[in-house]
Amino acid sequence: MGRAFEFRKGRKMKRWSAMAKTFTRIGKDIVMAVKEGGPNPDANSRLRAVIQNAKAANMPKDNVERAIKNASNKDTANYKEILFEGYAPHGIAILIETASDNNNRTVANIRSYFNKCNGTMGTQGSVDFMFDHTCNFRIPKGDLDPEELELELIDFGAEEVFEDEDGILIYAPFGSFGALQKELENRGIEILSSGFERIPQITKELTEAQIADVEKLIEKIEEDDDVMNVYHTMKEE
């Protein structure tokens, strides 16, 4: 198995924020997708993907439809995606994806978390190069063979295809998202969920005490309403 498999296995048992925050994140994704490509999912591939993710997270259909309607309102806040970089204690690189309607607030908050937890906020590009930006799709297992599917999807960017208890996962570079989404849809394969992740190229092993130091910073960052995802180079079992 490759790095995507190990990355997914390591994160599987890690915390994911409460359901209410998951819905909030999906709501922001809907707003950004609608403002970018309109409210019709048939003509907006990004919105189509977000709706699939909402379904996978058991977000009520009424909530999704309401979010799409609200996002079409010109007075709805427009979220901007901002990437923050820095170092946690013990040399662990941290990459933070945010979606914010107030950049000054988000910058101030993220900087305060680093300062309070003995970390260092970095400049643009300071740690981004340590992570591979990937896209992924989860599909039902059905009668599909992961190895055969991988061979068939290589031309569309697929780099790693593997099975877990929830179905089949397909990983590819960030830029291959559109081509893979279109090919899966053309084949009539149901997409259960999809998304983007940043996989560390190298990870660092820490002691239990050091892990606690890093976790303290990560937890503070993840509690922020503007934060969508946090990635790091700490080795996870």
List keywords for this structure.
237 residues, alpha+beta, 4-stranded antiparallel β-sheet, 8 helices, 8 strands, globular, transcription regulation, Transcrip_reg_TACO1-like
Mean pLDDT: 91
| Radius of gyration (Å) | 18 Å
Biggest sheet character: 4 strands, antiparallel
Helix content: 40-55%
Query: How far apart lie the N and C ends?
Result: 15 Å
Q: What oligomeric state do these chains adopt?
A: single chain
How many DSSP H or I helices?
8
Return residue spans where pLDDT drops below 50 for at least 5 consecutive residues: none
In total, the number of strands is 8
User: Helix-strand pattern, N to C?
Assistant: HHHHEEHEEHEEHEHE
Assign an overall shape.
Answer: globular
Side by side, the strands of the main sheet go 3-1-2-8
Helix and strand composition category: alpha+beta
Taken as a percent bin, the fraction of beta residues is 15-25%
Keywords: Cytoplasm, DNA-binding, Transcription, Transcription regulation
GO biological process, one term: regulation of DNA-templated transcription
GO molecular function: DNA binding
Domain TACO1/YebC-like N-terminal: 4-73
Question: How would you describe this structure to a colleague?
Answer:
The protein is of the alpha+beta class and 237 residues long. It is built from eight helices and eight strands; from the N terminus they run H-H-H-H-E-E-H-E-E-H-E-E-H-E-H-E. It has helices at residues 3-12, 19-37, 45-56, 61-71, 103-116, 146-153, 177-186, 208-222, and strands at 80-88, 92-100, 120-121, 131-139, 160-164, 167-173, 193-200, 227-232. The strands form two sheets. The protein has a four-stranded antiparallel sheet. A four-stranded antiparallel sheet has the order 5-6-4-7, sandwiched between helices. A hairpin with a 2-residue loop joins strand 5 (160-164) and strand 6. Helix 2 packs antiparallel against helix 3 (45-56) and helix 2 (19-37) crosses helix 4. The mean pLDDT is 91. It is found in: Cytoplasm.
